[in-house]
Design goal:
4 copies of one chain form a homotetramer.
Chain A: H1 13-21, H2 38-46, E1 51-55, H3 58-67, E2 74-79, H4 83-86, H5 91-95, E3 100-104, H6 113-120, E4 131-138, H7 149-162, E5 165-170, H8 173-180, H9 184-192, E6 197-200, E7 211-215, H10 218-230, H11 239-249, H12 253-270, E8 284-288, H13 291-299, E9 305-306, E10 311-315, H14 322-333
Parallel strand pairs in A: 2-3, 2-4, 4-5, 5-6
Antiparallel strand pairs in A: 1-7, 6-7, 8-10, 9-10
Helix pairs in contact in A: 1-11, 2-11, 3-10, 7-9, 8-9, 8-12, 12-14
């Protein structure tokens, strides 16, 4: 039973249908009828104007978004364990032409205004030190923690005061929205409203190959449009990516999928409160777990990653079967 | 009737089946069972060892291949009208970190050893001038011309003499192979055998989102593996790309599709010999054609691009209906 | 007798004095008392506000200036034979992070609005083609031709219309000013007034290691300040560079030196009117000259560069002895 | 009395003489007679073959050296407080095209094999994480600590085992050599012998504008030759830089100057043993010192930098007058 990652889950049937439905030839790149609906569809979801670019990966989404805010001689404040720092193979250095990631601390891989200030306040305002140009936060965080709207607002306020761009890596934005509750649109709108650009992830949530970069500061999209092509990310048959995104928004499928994954995670978490390293606020579970215990779980056919010597990371997906989650719960309870 | 480009054609049904067939979760990125078959499958096709990376676009394929051969302070000799110079939004400058494209002349957008020498021989061997590190040729060329194996061999010999890498942009490599005839594998192997890396295009030939970078100099692949991730082109569900490629190779579907497109182009060309600006050696037709004639064709519902003031470009695709090609032939004949 | 280049001439004695005069310790980088006088001194010369950065080379000056106007995904229109294209070892590709040089034609290596439009008008306004961000002209040109103020104004007008930055490579700006006549400040001011940034060269004019980047669009200097440090061009003992620049401005030494070089060039040109490939409008002479004639000149101890098969380039410097120029004139006359 | 930094000290009179002595025109760039002596002169000093490039700044020296060892997708292990990380305005990101600095801990800003392994061992050997390509150490360190030859040898061994380049930032290499004692050549040779490239600093040691990049792995110099020009650091009158370097080597002036600075530092340190934050192993003194004490020193006309809230950094130079050092000692003793 698969708890390794949500990034290999099957594609949702509605997305297959949507892609097949877009199979007739149309204008290439993003000139097709489907791509043209994205701005409005996401604008409707967030309740405000936005411009939307599809790309195939979260790394491309993050780095293109940041490249619209950060000059080559600037820096990006992010968490020490942020995906852009740890797991993107140096893509920010490439896309930002050598700009610097400035690493901040923070519980649960979340930033706070204080943690950000601890990084940027000591920077001398001279040419010998790289100056920050933007902040990047991750919703939900690398440890599956969700920023509350007021937490984001506080960071956004700091960003504005300091003249910094604000980017949100939302590889699991859907899971955060599902966790935060309220209507999907409200939750999303409130939490994203103050960021300049959001990498809105769909691949981990039942998509095949489409992520959305949502620019709330629409002027930034002008730069990203050119940079996407320059990075080889402007696919000629973009309608198949756009179709995935529209299908995800349609009837809030994205939220339904995320709720499903989150519920499975809560099912597991509910029996393991004393083992949780982080509160489960999305679809990732970090469990204290000895090597022997991990071996026991694997013997029962559960797949997951070790997380250092004494922990395990378990991730649920949109299609994690309820019975797998239940089985995992029982297995953990019986350790 | 659609003769605008092959880059928007529908996806071949066998590829849809292959993608659906790969829908079960597997290892992420290129660790899945399908991706692991690529080296062998392409090795079999070309009759020699090779290493193969999937990417989503031809621009990424070209630039990643070149980035494995060209240092940031070097240059790439290519045709003045090559895709990397004209239509990739500056991607080579990005991927090669500022290396320079060195533009050569050549009929039909094809290079010759003489044309290459005309560019590189005048370069002083000092640090004030950018030194060439590689040559890039396009098979079939921007004007739908196919290099004969001996033409490629002559360029490859020059490249070796000068210590330059040799890259082939094969966005329409299938069409060139189909035109050159012989068995598909032979033709491909003979023409590609001396290049270091080939961008083998499938998207224009019935694919959805998968191109192959085929490294015949397998050491170069080591660099490209890192660079692909760094460029945000390592999709987490890579199995859907690999599945497209395998389905294309299976039963030589790639060649069948290309023959189909080429045949449609020949159908049109056969009636328009006196109008052809370039011999038709793939699936592109460049016709001398007045504005009035173009209007007449469009009035009959044919879609295509103007090519300057007095010409039209018409492109056929794997699924161009025979009756459309016939109808176009008649319409041209009656101009 | 030395007519190879002005770029190896001795340092003017007044500059040695000025550097020695700056020898006492002062604040590092550009915080010293001498550096702080530059904005005002150049502002006084040009009769308008400007911000001035010293750097050690013309290549650094050109590329830092351009990097303040051109984004990595943009391009710079310059002459096909411009120094930035031909002789800077790919520095623009490095400093501009892969931006593209767009090569225009033009007699005497000078651009015209028409030549610039011939390059930029065919560029499709889409993401597939690199868009121009700036124009770079060279005063005096690579062939020693000087732009008249109205020629620059016409280019500046075009630049403004199209939203492009305008950079002037003034490696031999002094020689152009001296040729154009009028008071130095007036001539300079009129010709430089419409450019955004000027690389004002001093090394070829009797300096040791100091060039000035003069920003008339002072906002651009903010970027260049950071980029200079980032490029390793912020010398810690910058006062020795600033001292060179101030000494050059003092009493219009720069103009005196340039006049001296220009006069020597005119001395030579006056006897060789029928051999001149380009009018002599600065301190460079391009002579039609057979190999045998060149050998004859060299036999008389004149050093110079061949310029292709049938020409020679002769360059005079601030300290070319009058008798050398006369001797060369006679030698040419007697060919 | 000046204890702010050694980077603003006057130029040594012998260097003025040497520069004046090189004033006659010679071949441009590094083709002159003086530049051509550098490889042999440094080879003689180090007792082994090397290739030497002059540049104007330590930042350029460090980054050009590293750019010859590190690909854009790689990383450089350095100390968290290394100059390349803290004080070079992001130059490594620029010169290395986005490669990553990987920050290690270590007392006195020195690295150890253990500290390096703590950084590189956890890096997964996959494309998602940046792989190290080189190590950079600083001799003397940012805190004026000198690596002993055996310490360097241990790091060099690790570098070789892991296939990593080894660079030494020797902005104060002379001071380290002077501290380590033995004959200058021996000490330098032993400590530098295992590094691939050394940035050998002279500007802080009585130079004006010349640093040397010394390549012991001479193949690396091939890349750096092109990169120096590409970075705008190939001055046309390079003979004035080469002359400074030769004058420094002549009669071991570099060592004499460094000893002088070190002696002044020891004079001060000798009275302040209980206040020293770091042992004084070069020409920098880090003193525990309250704000009131610092004010008292400044009232006596001593200039220096605060180092955080409770410390001061005092730096001596080649020409720090003995009486200033004595006066400072007394002032500190009387605090």
């Amino acid at each position: 039973m698969q708890f390794l990652s949500d990034n290999t889950a099957s594609v949702h049937p509605k997305l297959w249908d949507a892609m097949r439905g877009a199979d007739a030839p149309d204008a290439p790149y993003d000139g097709d009828a489907v791509s043209k609906q994205l701005d409005a569809a996401f604008g409707n979801l967030f309740g405000r104007e936005c411009r939307v670019l599809w790309v195939a990966t979260g790394t491309a989404a993050n780095c293109l978004a940041l490249s619209s805010m950060v000059q080559p001689h600037g820096g990006v404040v992010c968490h020490r364990e942020a995906h852009i720092e740890m797991d993107e193979g140096g893509a920010p250095g490439f896309y930002l032409h050598g700009a610097k990631l400035m690493l901040a601390e923070g519980e649960g891989a979340k930033l706070t205004p204080g943690a950000i200030r601890a990084v940027i306040d000591p920077i001398r305002d001279d040419v010998h030190q790289v100056q920050p140009h933007a902040i990047s936060i991750t919703q939900a965080s690398e440890y599956g923690r969700s920023y509350r709207p007021e937490e984001i607002a506080a960071i956004a306020t700091l960003a504005k005061e300091r003249g910094l761009g604000l980017h949100m890596d939302g590889a699991r934005f859907a899971n955060a929205c599902a966790f935060l509750g309220g209507s999907a649109a409200e939750a999303a709108s409130r939490s994203a409203g103050e960021v300049d650009a959001l990498s809105f992830g769909f691949v981990k949530n039942g998509g095949m190959s489409a992520e959305a970069i949502v620019f709330f500061d629409t002027a930034l999209a002008d730069v990203a449009y050119y940079r996407r092509k320059r990075a080889g990310h402007l696919q000629s048959k973009g309608r198949y990516l756009a179709a995935q995104l529209l299908a995800m928004l349609d009837g809030d499928l994205w939220l339904e999928n995320a709720r499903s994954a989150n519920n499975a995670a809560q099912e597991v978490a509910s029996v393991a409160a004393d083992r949780l390293i982080h509160p489960v606020e999305a679809n990732e579970i970090f469990l204290r777990c000895t090597p022997a215990e991990r071996a026991a779980l694997r013997a029962k056919n559960f797949d997951f990653y070790d997380w250092g010597a004494d922990a395990a990371r378990l991730v649920t997906a949109w299609n994690t079967p309820q019975e797998h989650a239940v089985a995992l719960s029982k297995a953990i309870a019986s350790l």
